[in-house]
Write a structure and sequence with these properties.
Order of helices and strands: EEHEEEHEE
Number of strands: 7
Shape: extended
Helix content: 10-25%
Distance between the termini: 32 Å
Strand content: 25-35%
Length: 108
């Protein structure tokens, strides 16, 4: 549960089909004067088309809150797992896997 500004508790439901999540390796963000639109896209090697898997539309104020929350979470992530290195705007594969698990390759 989360608390809103009036100290009331907000119940949030997470349905199983949403809890599974959707993989995205590209996001395209556009905006107008009253909304910010983020398309989450899945590009797969060897496939001629990339698919938009989800579109999120939000007010600019909510987009800024999301930005601040992402910055805070990235800061906390880097404190726990180390700096996320980017090379020419692209993620670096040096020294880590996609998920920061301390599992040797080939083990589960």
């Amino acid at each position: 549960m989360a608390e809103n500004n009036n100290n009331q508790q907000l119940q949030i439901e997470l349905k199983p089909e949403v809890a599974e999540g959707t993989y995205s390796n590209l996001a395209i963000i556009t905006h107008s004067s009253c909304e910010v639109i983020t398309d989450f896209i899945q590009m797969m090697p060897g496939m001629p088309k990339a698919q938009v898997k989800s579109r999120i539309i939000m007010a600019p104020e909510h987009a800024k809150r999301l930005l601040m929350a992402l910055q805070d979470n990235i800061r906390k992530y880097e404190q726990q797992f180390g700096t996320i290195k980017l090379t020419n705007g692209q993620p670096s594969n040096e020294g880590r896997t996609i998920a920061p698990f301390n599992i040797k390759q080939g083990e589960a």
